[in-house]
Each structure stands twice: as structure tokens, then as C-alpha cells.
Design a protein that fits this description.
The longest helix is centred in the middle third of the chain and has 24 residues, at 182-205. This protein has helices at residues 94-97, 149-162, 182-205, 218-226, 239-252, 275-281, 319-341, 357-371, 400-404, 420-437, 449-456, 460-470, and strands spanning 7-13, 17-24, 27-35, 45-54, 59-63, 70-73, 103-110, 119-121, 126-127, 131-134, 140-142, 170-173, 210-213, 231-236, 260-262, 286-288, 294-299, 304-309, 345-350, 378-383, 388-393, 443-447, 474-478, 487-491. The strands form five sheets. Strands 16-17-18-19-21-20 form a six-stranded mixed beta sheet, covered by helices on one side. It has a five-stranded mixed beta sheet with strand order 3-2-1-14-15, sandwiched between helices. Strands 4-5-6-8-7 form a five-stranded mixed barrel. α10 (420-437) runs parallel beside α12. β20 (378-383) and β21 (388-393) form a beta hairpin. The protein is an alpha+beta fold and 492 residues long. It has twelve helices and 24 strands.
Length: 492
């Protein structure tokens, strides 16, 4: 975060969900939400015991203390050091590698699904924010999504200079490390090596069939991923999470430990600074600006579009000044919303047209400055001839909307549903169609209350006309479970 930004982190933990909010100068900047339902066993490390070796399938069943035994295929077994491996570096026959009753350190590659047990690997990886440790690997790999050659070279040389030649292990540099400082990479590397030593110590002391290490619980991961140097304090509303976070910080982030407090006030922690309300607002399309203008944000499949409008605001001497001020205010609001909603990919911003080049420059500068607070990598490509600002934002997690919402079952995500009037005319056509095909005594129309009301009110004459044409009575019935565009014409 920028100079003078004093931030604090609020962490709210319940049985099924953990949420973390980053607040700077009293304003919510970022939210992380994690739900138990979305978190499987992926990445967990177990001390397993080989229960059966299946030479025909070149696989083994491993007991790791889960409901179903887990499955380990030869291709996922790292050959022991000095073992004559096949030409591709993989071992040949599973019977040379495993015997029933062996203890083995394994990691979950694939969650158990349906009747299948978890799939395991012994090629263990331990991820952190910028790096992944390969305790049994060697060398340094760089994420293929970091495409700039110069940056790849820089990362390679930084890691080369940090790596301890005495430790035989490899690292993968994650996409998030693009632009990361040597200090940040060093901290990550130290953290991972410390963590691996702890995992090994755990594995030695635990009996087989036990969990040796799981990915950090949310409260702890948030601290690891978000904490920058300017955090004043971290408040956690759950005693147990507070204890885990303190223990984690004592080991890995000693500077942070004294800042962690247990929040035991009666008020829900997310009522502080109006965080709960801000999260609700971050799900709205419209973001009001103080000046009376507003911003409209739409997430589509291909990109996110952001439109800036003045509203009715004409407070300044002239229009150009009004537009300039609204755009400046919008630039700051947009940067905050992108981070809050965790929007990624291509983002197109349509600022209100400004005549003066100098104003355009200042608005772009304001947007750039506001985006500097964001720890996701952002890039403003250019302002297009139409005055659209094109930018990208990298992100690794789902957007807030995708975590908290589902597509509306009625409009299926289109954002529109047929009007009552449209449905009304469809019903009238359907009545005539049915009447021509079948001999009927009477008809019952089942539909949403808005549609039935319209048929009884403005469209009563049309309904009477259709009733005359068919010479049959037509009964109307409100169906409470129907969507606004759903109806049935029932023949009796």
C-alpha cells in the first residue's frame, strides 16, 4: 500500500465460512471469502501406509486415514535416490518401489469424488504466495504465464542468488511473482524451507494414516497473502483462529505476531467500518459517487465494462470542470471496486468524454496512482480513439460475485426476463392454437401474478375477445411458484 495508508485486517470466522476484510483509513479495500464446501483435500500431505500393491494396474492403494483408501499410480511415484529409473526419469515397475506395509509421504492430487478415493502423488509440492517448493526436485522453473523475457531472466537470477546450494530442492516461480521484490521472494523462500522442515519433523513423529500438513486455514492464509508492511493490526473474532494465527505468526512472521488481537466485542466484527454494507454494495451494478455521478460495472464472459456517468450533477462553473471532477472521483472509486470485487481479465472503462488533453492525462494518472495500491498485477494499455481506457488485472481467485452469487434461475444470467405484456400475448396466442386443435369445455390459464393481473386489467378486452372467438370460458389462476415468464394453458 502507498505511503500513509494505515491498514488493518478484520477476520470473521464461523464453522463453514471464513472472511477477511482489509480496511485502509477506515475504508474497505479488499475482501476474501472462503467456504468449507469449496475446500477439498487437495494439496494435503499425509503419512500413508501401503495397503495393497496392484502390479497389473501399476498402482497401489494407500491408507491415509480417510473414509476410502486412496490411489497412487506408478507415474506419480518419485524414484528413490540412486534408483535405476526408466529413461524418462520415472521408475519402471511398482513392485520395485513399494511393498505392502511401507510408510510413505504422499500428497493429494485429486479430491475423492463419488465412490473414487483420492488420487495421490509422492512428487510433493508446497505452495506459498510467490513460489512453490519442490522438496524432491531441483532447479528453478518459471510460470509460463510470465511471458516477458526480461522478467523471466530477472526472476531466475534473483532466485539463483537466494538459493542455498546446501539444500537439494527446486522452486517454481508462480505467476503472482511478476514484479515481486527480491526481499519478498527471499521471505517466501525462507517461509517454505522452514515449513518443509516442520512437515518432515511432523512426518517423523506421527503414526501412519495421519494428516501431516494441510493448506493453511483461511485466517492464516489471508495473513500470509495480504499482510504488507503497513498493517497496524489484525483482529480475529474467533478464539481458536486467533490462537492458530498467533502460533503461525510466531514461527513464520515474527514481526506480525504482536499486531494480532482477539476481537471479543459484542458487535459483529464486520459491522466495524460498515464492512458488511460495503460487501453488499460491491454486488450492485451501480456505484454512487459523492459528486452525484455514478459508475456502472458489468461482468460479462469476455470482459468487465465500467461506465462513468455524471448523473444530474452540475455543481461547477462549467460542464468541462464537472466532467473532469466526476472522472477523477470515478478513477479512484473504480480502482477500489476492481480490487473489492476481485475483477480480472480485460477491463474497459468508459470515462465521460473530456475535451482538454491535460484533463485526460490527469484522469489516467489518477487511475494509475489508485491502482498502485492493488497487489494484483494491473496494466493500463492505452486510451482508445473512442476515449475508452483498456486495462487488464491479473487475479487468481474467483470474483466476489462468482463466490457469493449464482445466475438468476429466471433469466439464466441474461439480466432480462420477458415483460408481463409479452407473456400475456403469448398466452392469448396459445389459447387460440389449442382451441383449433382440440375439442374443449373450458380452459385454465396458470401464470405469474403480474401476468394474471394484466389479463384482468389492461388486457381484459383482449381476453374477452379471445373467449368470444373460442366460445369457451377461460379461467385464470395465479401460480405462486411460476417465474414471471412461465405459463400453462390447461384444457379441461
Amino acid at each position: 500500500a502507498g505511503a500513509g495508508m494505515k491498514a488493518e485486517i478484520l477476520i470473521n470466522v464461523t464453522a463453514r465460512e471464513a472472511r477477511a476484510a482489509v480496511v485502509a483509513n477506515g475504508v474497505l479495500q479488499e475482501v476474501l471469502i472462503e467456504r468449507a464446501s469449496r475446500r477439498g483435500l487437495l494439496g494435503n500431505i499425509y503419512k500413508g501406509r501401503v495397503s495393497r500393491v496392484l502390479p497389473g494396474m501399476q498402482a497401489a492403494f494407500i491408507e491415509v486415514g480417510l473414509e476410502r483408501t486412496a490411489f497412487l499410480h506408478t507415474s506419480d511415484i518419485a524414484p528413490p535416490p540412486g534408483h535405476p529409473a526408466a529413461p524418462d526419469g520415472r521408475a519402471t515397475d511398482i513392485r520395485d518401489l513399494l511393498r505392502e506395509g511401507d510408510d510413505i509421504l504422499v500428497q493429494v492430487l485429486k479430491d475423492p469424488i463419488g465412490t473414487k478415493g483420492a488420487r495421490l502423488t509422492t512428487f510433493i509440492t508446497v505452495p506459498s504466495r510467490y513460489l512453490v517448493l519442490l522438496p524432491r526436485g531441483s532447479g528453478i522453473g518459471i510460470s509460463s504465464r510470465i511471458s516477458a523475457e526480461a522478467e523471466r531472466e530477472r526472476l531466475k537470477s534473483v532466485l539463483g542468488s537466494l538459493a542455498d546450494p546446501a539444500r537439494a530442492c527446486g522452486f517454481i516461480v508462480r505467476t503472482a511473482a511478476e514484479g515481486a521484490s527480491p526481499e519478498a521472494l527471499q521471505a517466501d523462500m525462507d517461509f517454505l524451507l522452514k515449513l518443509w522442515d516442520m512437515i518432515c519433523a511432523n512426518a517423523r513423529s506421527l503414526p501412519a494414516g495421519q494428516l501431516v500438513h494441510e493448506d493453511l486455514p483461511l485466517a492464516v492464509r489471508v495473513a500470509r497473502d495480504i499482510v504488507t508492511t503497513d498493517i497496524e493490526r489484525v483482529r480475529v473474532d474467533c478464539t481458536e483462529s486467533h490462537a492458530r494465527l498467533r502460533a503461525f505468526a510466531d514461527t513464520f512472521m515474527p514481526g506480525l505476531a504482536p499486531l494480532i488481537e482477539h476481537y471479543a466485542d459484542g458487535r459483529p466484527i464486520f459491522d466495524l467500518y460498515g464492512v458488511e454494507d460495503e460487501i453488499q454494495k460491491a454486488l450492485d451494478r451501480r456505484v454512487p459517487l459523492k459528486s452525484g455521478g455514478y459508475v456502472v460495472i458489468d461482468q460479462t464472459e469476455a470482459m468487465t465494462t465500467v461506465d462513468v456517468n455524471t448523473g444530474g450533477y452540475v455543481g461547477h462553473r462549467n460542464l468541462e470542470e464537472t466532467i473532469f471532477r466526476t472522472n477523477l472521483e470515478a478513477a479512484v472509486a473504480i480502482a477500489r471496486q476492481l480490487r473489492l470485487r476481485n475483477l480480472g481479465g480485460i477491463i474497459i472503462i468508459d470515462f465521460i468524454d473530456m475535451l482538454e488533453a491535460q484533463h485526460r492525462e490527469q484522469v489516467l494518472a489518477a487511475l494509475r496512482a489508485a491502482l498502485d495500491e492493488d497487489h494484483a498485477h494491473t496494466q493500463i494499455t492505452q486510451a482508445s480513439p473512442l476515449g475508452l481506457v483498456e486495462m487488464t488485472r491479473k487475479r487468481t481467485r474467483e470474483s466476489l460475485e462468482h463466490i457469493m452469487c449464482q445466475a438468476c434461475p429466471t433469466c439464466a444470467g441474461r439480466g432480462f426476463v420477458k415483460s408481463a405484456e409479452t407473456v400475456c400475448y403469448e398466452i392469448l396466442r396459445e389459447i387460440l392454437r389449442q382451441h383449433q386443435q382440440f375439442a374443449i369445455r373450458e380452459m385454465v390459464v396458470l401464470a405469474h401474478s403480474d401476468v394474471i393481473e394484466l389479463l384482468l386489467d389492461e388486457e381484459a378486452a383482449s381476453l374477452a375477445e379471445v373467449s368470444d372467438q373460442t366460445g369457451r370460458p377461460i379461467r385464470l389462476q395465479v401460480e405462486s411458484g411460476y417465474a414471471p415468464d412461465q405459463f400453462d394453458v390447461v384444457l379441461i
